[in-house]
Amino acid sequence: MPESIHHTTLDNGLRVVAQRIPGVSGVGIAVHYRVGFRTESRNRSGFAHLFEHMMFQGSTNVPRGGHFARIQAHGGLVNGHTFPDVTDYYQVVPTAALDEVLDLEADRMAGLAVTDDNLRTQRDVVKQEIRLQVDGRPYGGFPWTGLPAVLYRKWENAHNGYGELADLEAATTDDCADFFDRHYAPGNAVLALCGDLSPETALATARRAFSRVPHRPVPPVPDVSEPRAVTELRATCHDRLAPRPALAVGYRMPDAQTDLPAYAANVVLSHLLTSGATARLRAALAPLDVRVDSSPGLFGPLMAKDPDTFVIVAHHPEGAENKVLEVITAQAADIARKGCTEGEAERAVATAVTSLYQNLDSLAYRVRFLARGALLFNRPTIADDLAQSISATTAHELALAAETLATPAGRAVLHLRPRGDAA
Description:
This protein is of the alpha+beta class. It is built from 16 helices and eleven strands. The strands form two sheets. Strands 1-2-6-3-5-4 form a six-stranded mixed beta sheet, with helices on both faces. Helix 3 (98-110) runs parallel beside helix 9, helix 10 packs across helix 15 (382-391) and helix 12 packs across helix 16.
């Protein structure tokens, strides 16, 4: 069972959180920076994701590829991801490798190798990723690359996180050095540690490694707030590789920072609608040969600050899109007006709690939640707090959550047409 979370702030501004998990094998290490798609400026779209790649290209004392090589030499796990508000880097390694990994992280925080060669190479890698992951496979990037532009009006919320190729092509090493200096400062980051080691040891080890990283000014957090839409918003995209049409429906979620119980009810609602063959939406849409899923959050629960999006994605036969939308609205309206049975609510709550705790059993998942909770919500305990709120969710709260989905007003609908067919 995880113990309480300990935290400190170093003189350079780096926040450190540590949690002991008795009996676990290995240690999880995550460094999260407060920079993501929504931190970019209009002529620098795609920079957050580009830097996720650049951060593995060497630093003052580590050659290109050295970070991966040294983690893998310990049999460890290492990766990074870019999200709307944060870029995360994490490792899971044997506890004996903790000092070495912290030195690696501190070295690239202090002095990334921003060179013409590294920029050129990683720009080509990103372009290839877009070709393979978005343009080169059915439903690539759907719906996260397109749905925000339908639901939101602010550029920061609406633009595609992969960025415009013209912006990436125009990037110079001076641009990249400036981006690094501003956004990869220790005061703009959180280091999280979890494993079977004392928090005092963890904090002391972090202090030894990172105290040598100089303080740098921290940029202001962008204001991405915007009013909720009051009408239904629609758009169409085309996919030459998709075998069938699809649609994505997006709704604004409650703010997890100010109303975690309402946010938790949205998490439970997602399971009520689409977890398992007998879930409300899956059962209702199965006779139409429709495959449907949902997600509380465009990238999952608590992966972004407000505003975030509750998403329903349905792959359907040709010509069925209006019927699918009618069923979604009718099912939500039924829950909002009549509520759900006590058994339905209990099953959805149990499924949601189980799913969250199964994920938290992973060191990689838990350490990232610690860092993200501290960085985005000033609440490193937010994963366990969410689990408690989910457990306390009632049928009445589910009915309130369903009200947002029960009307077309304020929702965004993105239609995907297969094979470029605009009919």
